[in-house]
Amino acid sequence: MAAQTTESDQIKQFKEFLGTYNKVTENCFMDCVRDFTTREVKPEESSCSESCLQKYLKMTQRISMRFQEYHIQQNEALAAKAGLMPGPRI
Prior knowledge:
This protein is mainly α and 90 residues long. The protein has helices at residues 2-32, 43-81. The termini are far apart.
């Protein structure tokens, strides 16, 4: 049963990744691609797309860091409340 749960979690995580990937791709495409008269990607479209993706990646990284910091603070507060850690020194 544990193997099924792990596999199920992996499938769910992969579906979430694909959904996020598709959303970012669509957003960057809609913001950056303007000229449909040629098959070639123009340099400004390519540059815009790269900037869009970099912005998304940086935002995701920053949110992840803040989320981790928040959980560390919450865990420390719970541990201090339970008497496992000394409280903050002033």
